[in-house]
Amino acid sequence: MIEEHFDFVVIGGGSGGYAAARTAREVCGRVAIIDGADELGGLCILRGCMPSKTLIYSAEVLHLAREGSRFGLNIPEATVDMPALRERKRRMVAEFRDYRVGQLESERFTLFRDKASFVGDNRVRLASAGREITADRFVIATGSVPQVPPVKGLAEAGAWTSDDVLELDFLPESVIVLGGGVVACELSQYLRRLGSKVIQIQRSPRILKEISPESAAVIEDAFRAEGIELYTGTQLQSVTRTPDGYEVAFSHGDKPVTAKAAHLFNALGRRPAVDGMDLEAAEIETERSGQIRVNTHQQTSNPRVYAAGDVCGPYEIVHLAIMQGEVAARHATGRTADPVDYDTRTSVVFTDPQIAEAGIPLTEARERGMDLAVADYPFDDHGKSIVMEARRGFVRAWADKATGRLVGAACVGKDGGELIHAMAVAVALQATPAALLKTHWYHPTLSEIWSYPLEDLAEELNS
Fold first, then answer.
1. Domains of the chain with bracketed CATH
2. Sign (positive/negative) of CA torsion 205, 206, 208, 213?
3. pLDDT tens, 156-184?
């Protein structure tokens, strides 16, 4: 058995793992990355953020073309070319992947293309190389994989995952989508806009249960208006593979329902990718959810081992995985490492309209006992959104009356993921609404909509 020692070892070469390795390499001479995936690049680049947003944007362009008459345009026909759509997605992904592979394969690191399992508190065994690796410190950043909840027949049904939906080279006639989270909602609308019949089944009383009910309601209305057959507040009973496709039996209210479609997409969440790692051998504890338990410096119950990204949570967001990886590497190498400040976090859901939030969510801020001033403004009364036929949604901002500072904001509307960053900066810099009103909010722009709730907040806080 060959044995080799490194100063720092990262397991997983995605965004969080690469950030940890890069940060460690600033002070460490020997840094290794272990990645046993079939393809280098990580979830975000290969099967997450980049391919999904590439496809979703194409579907938005198609949707706008089909809605051309609303803009005074005569566009006789707009259809999808699925092989060309997939080829464009693959081309885009390849650009991002190749850049990341170049980083991982650079001479700064030793790269092992293998799977690792712990055999001690500071030792891993590579599955196929006949080699054991020891290190002063480890970071686990292996990401997540789709989960299969215990629904009768689901495990045997051969349902699609998001990986399959992102690789389609044909237009599905009909699809049942199980789930109402971010992935389910983004790809349900994507499929519908391409032209598929979509039946979406959500167990919770509303989709996107992690966001506010008012925000979720806007998306539910948009989905139904576009022709998605949406069921919420259901109980899944069984999944059956049939000669024609799939049948899903569920209860909706007090009534039994059976949905039928040619294809089935399981979007019922993800779980940490830790299978086969034997975390117990390194005395690494996990939460009931399966996520690795970490402290504010991303350190696990084994002080030699850290974790970052989906594998530990609490949020499955790529920029947070990067920040966590950097914190872990700095703390592991004895440097100052301020924990990730989740009170200034941002999040975006790429439905149309988009949903974006910054800072402390309104419900959470109230649960903490903050006395808040809250103001909102609708898109259907805003000049630029009206001329863009983007009338759905609203912006909302809230400030702490005790300090006068903005602590959170939400945007449900056209390009919300872009608009939210004005408020993300404001929250991070602890700005007051009055200070933000010194900004030149250009007219007519979508961003200008923030000035209206800010004016109401400034007036309430100064009264």
1. 2-146+271-341 (3.50.50.60), 154-268 (3.50.50.60), 343-462 (3.30.390.30)
2. negative
3. 999 999 999 999 999 999 999 999 999 99
